[in-house]
């Protein structure tokens, strides 16, 4: 795995420093674990101190609906990991997506969105279209198709790479180069790769969002989202969307994310190692039609994927050689190590068939998504092989 140093305020910082010590230089009482500041209010010793804080509410500790020391520590770490100037934690990945989108759009604006983005992101765009006249064009996750869809009214391009269900990779640099020339903002969902394996900011993206519920927290016990970008955009999102809507993350959950960050690099490396073993097995299996895992060197998208990412996560999908819903059900119900669940990103091994959703097109009946956890990959291969033999 590629290790790197990050320039922060004029000095270079190793990734270990970010995960373990950055921002924790003056921990109260020399505690080895940063404390949870579980308070709603912060007091002041003078009128002038209070007045200054109220006039600079972006970064001052006044009221927990704005900023909190535990949360701000995690936000600083995440911003640095993503090579961004600032970041904000919010109450869910969907909050991160919706707040970012809202900030850059007015009624009658036009958006280009990849059609394989997270389903709730697409639903939100459809909601904005119905209620506020936002025009949305959904296109396949291909840079040329995205650029062809741009109009004079386009204000935002929304990307996801790799995508949620088919793990398609888009040429991010190609899109952002044109977007910057035209003054169009770009947002990308970087949950799949995590900031360990992909930094969209250095590829030209304006705002990076994550479901911190997944790899960033990594233990399946926190619901959270992250927004990261330039300070100007982040202040705008904080003042106009975050403060008005109020999707505040509790300090306890921020602390749990901090705990998860300590092992983020180690966990991502293990997810990737396991996913390569599992994807190789599936690619060689006679009952598998195709495997979607772009960071496997055997993938058709590997060249593009590896030019943007230094590794892969545990999320992949594949197609069974069947069109039978009953056989798909038999396959997933035969799995013992993989358990059926819709989310992903922590240590568990999970499976969800596309056909379980009510709006499944006929061509996707045989599409299965799995999340490869951080245990023994041979057990996962054995479990998949046993279930495949049943059909």
From TrEMBL:
<feature type="modified residue" description="N6-(pyridoxal phosphate)lysine">
    <location>
        <position position="214"/>
    </location>
</feature>
<comment type="similarity">
    <text>Belongs to the trans-sulfuration enzymes family.</text>
</comment>
<dbReference type="GO" id="GO:0005737">
    <property type="term" value="C:cytoplasm"/>
</dbReference>
<dbReference type="Pfam" id="PF01053">
    <property type="entry name" value="Cys_Met_Meta_PP"/>
</dbReference>
<dbReference type="InterPro" id="IPR015424">
    <property type="entry name" value="PyrdxlP-dep_Trfase"/>
</dbReference>
<dbReference type="GO" id="GO:0030170">
    <property type="term" value="F:pyridoxal phosphate binding"/>
</dbReference>
<dbReference type="InterPro" id="IPR054542">
    <property type="entry name" value="Cys_met_metab_PP"/>
</dbReference>
<dbReference type="InterPro" id="IPR000277">
    <property type="entry name" value="Cys/Met-Metab_PyrdxlP-dep_enz"/>
</dbReference>
<keyword id="KW-0663">Pyridoxal phosphate</keyword>
<dbReference type="InterPro" id="IPR015421">
    <property type="entry name" value="PyrdxlP-dep_Trfase_major"/>
</dbReference>
<dbReference type="GO" id="GO:0016846">
    <property type="term" value="F:carbon-sulfur lyase activity"/>
</dbReference>
<protein>
    <submittedName>
        <fullName>Cystathionine gamma-synthase</fullName>
    </submittedName>
</protein>
<dbReference type="GO" id="GO:0019346">
    <property type="term" value="P:transsulfuration"/>
</dbReference>
<dbReference type="InterPro" id="IPR015422">
    <property type="entry name" value="PyrdxlP-dep_Trfase_small"/>
</dbReference>
């Amino acid at each position: 795995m590629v290790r790197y140093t990050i320039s922060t305020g004029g000095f270079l910082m190793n990734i270990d420093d970010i995960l373990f010590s950055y921002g924790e230089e003056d921990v109260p009482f020399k505690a080895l674990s940063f404390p949870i500041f579980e308070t709603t209010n912060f007091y002041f010793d003078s009128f002038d101190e209070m007045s200054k804080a109220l006039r600079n509410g972006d970064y001052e500790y006044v009221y927990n609906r704005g900023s909190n020391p535990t949360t701000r520590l995690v936000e600083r770490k995440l911003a640095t990991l993503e090579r961004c100037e600032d970041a904000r934690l919010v109450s869910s990945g969907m909050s991160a997506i919706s707040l970012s989108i809202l900030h850059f759009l007015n009624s009658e604006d036009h958006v280009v969105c990849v059609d394989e983005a997270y389903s709730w992101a697409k639903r939100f765009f459809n909601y904005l279209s119905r209620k506020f006249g936002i025009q949305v064009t959904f296109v396949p996750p291909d840079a040329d198709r995205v650029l062809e869809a741009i109009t004079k009214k386009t204000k935002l391009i929304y990307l996801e790479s790799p995508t949620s269900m088919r793990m398609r990779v888009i040429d991010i640099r190609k899109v952002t180069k044109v977007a910057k020339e035209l003054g169009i903002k770009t947002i990308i969902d970087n949950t799949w790769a995590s900031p360990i394996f992909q930094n969209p900011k250095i590829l030209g993206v304006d705002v990076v969002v994550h479901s911190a519920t997944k790899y960033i927290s990594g233990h399946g016990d926190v619901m959270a989202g992250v927004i990261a970008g330039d300070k100007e955009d982040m202040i705008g999102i904080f003042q106009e969307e975050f403060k008005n809507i109020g999707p505040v993350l509790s300090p306890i959950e921020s602390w749990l994310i901090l705990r998860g960050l300590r092992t983020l690099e180690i966990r991502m490396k293990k997810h990737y190692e396991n996913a390569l073993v599992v994807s190789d097995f599936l690619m060689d299996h006679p009952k598998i039609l195709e495997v979607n895992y772009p960071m496997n060197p055997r993938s058709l998208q590997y060249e593009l994927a590896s030019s943007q990412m230094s590794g892969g996560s545990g999320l992949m999908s594949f197609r069974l050689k069947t069109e039978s819903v009953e056989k798909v059900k038999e396959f997933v119900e035969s799995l013992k190590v993989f358990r059926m669940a819709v989310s992903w990103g922590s240590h568990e091994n999970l499976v969800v068939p596309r056909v379980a959703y009510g709006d499944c097109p006929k061509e996707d009946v045989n599409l299965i998504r799995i999340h490869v956890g951080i245990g023994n990959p041979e057990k996962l291969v054995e479990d998949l092989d046993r279930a495949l033999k049943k059909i």
